Amino acid sequence: MSAVAFDGVGAAYGARLVLDGVGAAFRAGAVTGIVGPNGAGKTTLLRVALGLLKPSAGTVLVLGKPPAAWSREGLAKAIAYLPQGAEAHWPVTARQLVSLGRLPHRAAFAPLSAADAAAAEDALARADAAQFAARRMDELSAGERARVLFARALATGAPVLLADEPAAFLDPAHQLRLMDLLREEAARGAAVAVTLHDLSLASRHCDEILVLKEGCVAASGAPAFALSDAALAAVFGIAVTRMPDGAVVPSRRL
Amino acid sequence: MGAGAAKGSGVTTLVLGALLLGGFVLSFLLGPSHLGAAALLEGLFGGHGAASVIAQQIRLPRAGLAVVVGAALGASGAALQGLFRNPLAEPGVTGVTSSAGLGAVLALYFGLAAVDPWLLPAFAIAGALVSAALLYALSRAGAGAMALVLAGVAIASLATALTALAMSFAQNPYAISEMVLWMMGSLRDRTLADLAFAAPLVAAGIALLLTASRGLDALTLGEDAAHSLGVDVASVRGRVVLGVALATGAATAAAGAVSFVGLVVPHVLRRFYGYEPSRLILPSALGGAVLTTAADVLVRLIAPDGQLLLGVVTAMLGAPFFLVLILRLRRDA
């Protein structure tokens, strides 16, 4: 079943239409990769699902209900969100930062419970960040910070995980580790949607691909189909070389 | 976090508490009348004679107000720095201090302060609430943190200009000297009524700031991520603006514009309590009380004749600190 469903969704910043008639679904238990050129509306699609932006047309359903019909806490427990280029604005410790992911589970003024602390530790370990749990965010490298910020989103333990370009800043090994983690979340039953610029990560590690271009769905479906030569030529204007293991490497501009 | 930081913060709290107690007693014992500690203490709890008048009507309000004013400024600064995610924020950037000062100056200009002693603080609070209401309306209309800072700066400039205007047109030299007192901040000649007026408002303001503390922590991740964690970001902004208006407005109504306490205290305490905004609000209230009490004691030690104003001392200590802070931030960036 689709955990997040978009039907004919339009969205605009002021007079500028950013999404136009988007129909898409993020299935529970699957990793959906969202690809598309800069400015295609990938981030906007996630923001509409989060209720950060009201759709100007169409409907969005998160676990069967539109975002506006959810309570704040309910929606926060339902969707974990990792914004693009996320940063910590104060140099708190990695552990403190990851604990923020448990905020939706905590009653007002209640301290961090043992269960919350355990969930934070588990998320740190899964993101391979446990070794710098006690270090301050400003003492970590960009890639290490990205892992901690990703752990923060994992710590919420939500049935829907939306990650906006989580692979940026990560070294190749940690990019692969990130995709494994996303797959683990999907195996746990979560609906995972992730925006990616790396076509190989998208084609090899995602169950489904949503290709956006200028606010519209250009292609969607299984990676082999959605990332076909014709689709990539139409959307990105590129030709690609395909490796036997499924990797897709841009070779030249058309 | 860790046990080490928690232990360090516990020790810091104890030290600050001890400093506050010592400063309060010193402040209470310090003054032009040469009464001994025993006589003053007896006067505080007894009901007769010069000692009781001095202890109850002069020393207690002054020492108490230093605590209340400092707590308001420290907590306001900590909350605002959390809201704007910027260590350079302080109550002055919201325009609340200048507007409260303008309210007080207008009450003096129109001679209302002589009609009823309650009118001056009432005008100061009204001034603070007007600027807070403007900022609150802006934040409800969707203005971001940057727009709020710019609006605060505009409000502060306007209030300062109107204050200067009132001073240029004031006929009465006595009123002018009173106005200066308000603009620079002073705890001289305060009464128990001032303390009774300021304390509950400051307490209410700090309580409102505390309700926003978890939202301020979430803002460490940015506004979109805070929203995704179930935080009503607009409501957090509104509560901080109103809380600061109540606390800082009441403090300014009682003591005038005491600068730099709200800037310096949270910054210094961050290294002991960590960077989470929620952990800093109450310690900053305590630290602000210590700093203001110490500055007020210093004022009286340097110039027992009462010619030195509290705001002058805090600004003279605070401004160099501010410059060093800016240089350090540049180097880190």
Helix and strand layout, with pairings?
The complex is a heterodimer of chains A (254) and B (333).
Chain A: E1 2-13, E2 16-27, E3 31-35, H1 42-49, E4 57-62, H2 72-78, E5 79-82, H3 94-99, H4 114-126, H5 142-155, E6 160-164, H6 172-187, E7 191-195, H7 199-205, E8 208-213, E9 216-221, H8 223-226, H9 229-236, E10 238-242, E11 248-253
Parallel strand pairs in A: 3-7, 3-8, 5-6, 6-7
Antiparallel strand pairs in A: 1-2, 1-4, 8-9, 10-11
Helix pairs in contact in A: 4-5
Chain B: H1 2-29, H2 37-45, H3 49-84, H4 96-109, H5 112-115, H6 119-140, H7 145-169, H8 173-184, H9 192-211, H10 213-218, H11 223-228, H12 233-255, H13 261-273, H14 281-302, H15 310-332
Helix pairs in contact in B: 1-3, 1-14, 2-3, 3-9, 3-12, 3-13, 3-14, 4-6, 4-7, 4-8, 4-12, 6-7, 6-12, 9-12, 13-14
What does this structure look like?
The complex is a heterodimer of chains A (254) and B (333). Chain A is built from 9 helices and 11 strands. Chain A is an alpha/beta fold. Chain A starts with a strand and ends with a strand. In chain B, helix 4 packs parallel to helix 7 (145-169). Chains A and B meet through helix 2, strand 5 and helix 3 of A and helix 10 and helix 11 of B.
- Strand and helix order of chain B: HHHHHHHHHHHHHHH
Give helix % range of chain B: over 70%
Assembly type of the shown chains? heterodimer
- Which secondary-structure class do the elements of chain B indicate? mainly alpha
Uncertain regions spanning at least 5 consecutive residues of chain B: none
Characterize the overall form of chain B: globular
Number of strands of chain B: 0
Measured distance between first and last alpha carbons of chain B: 24 Å
Average of per-residue pLDDT values of chain A: 93
Strand content of chain A: 25-35%
Mean pLDDT score of chain B? 87
Strand order of the largest sheet of chain A: 5-6-7-3-8-9
